[in-house]
């Protein structure tokens, strides 16, 4: 394997949900506040031309001893199959990295007002990217029924 990778957060999630819960993220509103010691508003120039963002963040509330590296039933649901940690999007991942797509409501200096971000208050943000339709799959997608069932109440 290669050497360890070190990343420095670019900002934090401010506001929105405080407790880690699984569903109803679509109604959540929060602010992603960039670190003013590292960035100016120049870093966000042109981002407001996009409706959605991809946010890369750190699941900072997951204790290292809770990390999963093998198969498990998503959400512990006995009706769903055991699948490997890389076949699901659970927070107890080896590097505790999350990726979320959310709606950009407004930019205000170093504050990005967003809707539907599934990260809690205080979450370290590692990166931001504008969502471009061309980065989505170009062909039809397929997923198992349990994943569709799991996501029914997520947003």
Automatic annotation (TrEMBL):
<dbReference type="InterPro" id="IPR036413">
    <property type="entry name" value="YaeB-like_sf"/>
</dbReference>
<comment type="similarity">
    <text>Belongs to the tRNA methyltransferase O family.</text>
</comment>
<dbReference type="InterPro" id="IPR023370">
    <property type="entry name" value="TrmO-like_N"/>
</dbReference>
<dbReference type="InterPro" id="IPR040372">
    <property type="entry name" value="YaeB-like"/>
</dbReference>
<dbReference type="Pfam" id="PF01980">
    <property type="entry name" value="TrmO_N"/>
</dbReference>
<keyword id="KW-0808">Transferase</keyword>
<keyword id="KW-0489">Methyltransferase</keyword>
<dbReference type="GO" id="GO:0008168">
    <property type="term" value="F:methyltransferase activity"/>
</dbReference>
<protein>
    <submittedName>
        <fullName>tRNA-Thr(GGU) m(6)t(6)A37 methyltransferase TsaA</fullName>
    </submittedName>
</protein>
<feature type="domain" description="TsaA-like">
    <location>
        <begin position="7"/>
        <end position="140"/>
    </location>
</feature>
<keyword id="KW-0949">S-adenosyl-L-methionine</keyword>
<dbReference type="GO" id="GO:0032259">
    <property type="term" value="P:methylation"/>
</dbReference>
<dbReference type="InterPro" id="IPR036414">
    <property type="entry name" value="YaeB_N_sf"/>
</dbReference>
